[in-house]
Design a protein that fits this description.
single chain
Length: 183
């Protein structure tokens, strides 16, 4: 596993330090995110290791560079919302932080720039899937809303799913209203 790296440095290097191979990756958030994202309030009894940055999400990729870049720099378009192709992590962070979608590209990119990410390459996607399954069984990752079975996270995950759905619906309404007003 690599050491966690500040995303803004990876972005500035045009993602050159990230391999284009299969693997697993972890997003590290500042400890303050536990409060601002309501994790501590909704996940009573959840313990995190000491440290400045907390791993709150892990994922797998066929191509680590492409997937990390997708989370951190995916364009916010109406099409992404309609086709449900927006990164699940990106959408969750937009909704939980209540970032306006219309001007959210710069805001969400700036948010990601404060995060750290690390990765571990694997020989195949199947190997990455096995590693992720073990990770999700042994560590709580509150922002993993798919395949997460930690009982202490169940209420929080339902809330994130609800927030994401409401955010998507409200944003699509706002985009449609804006488009109609411009006719």
């Amino acid at each position: 596993m690599t050491a966690p790296q500040l995303l803004s440095l990876l972005r500035n290097s045009r993602w050159s330090g990230i391999p284009s191979s299969p693997g697993i990756y972890w997003w590290f958030f500042p400890r303050t995110a536990l409060k601002t994202l309501c994790i501590t309030a909704m996940c009573e009894g959840l313990l995190f290791p000491p440290g400045e940055n907390m791993p709150l999400y892990c994922g797998i990729a066929n191509d680590l560079k492409r997937r990390i870049k997708e989370h951190a720099a995916q364009q916010l378009t109406r099409r992404c919302l309609l086709l449900k192709s927006l990164s699940t992590l990106r959408l969750a962070l937009l909704a939980l932080n209540n970032f306006a979608y219309a001007d959210g590209q710069q805001t969400i990119d700036g948010y990601f720039d404060t995060l750290h990410v690390c990765w571990q390459t694997t020989n195949s996607r199947h190997e990455a899937e096995d590693l992720e399954a073990r990770e999700l069984c042994t560590h709580p990752y509150p922002l993993n809303i798919q395949k997460n079975r930690h009982a202490t996270l169940a209420s929080f995950i339902r809330d994130v799913q609800s927030e994401r759905a409401a955010y998507t619906q409200q944003t699509l309404i706002q985009i449609s209203e804006t488009a109609l007003s411009e006719l």
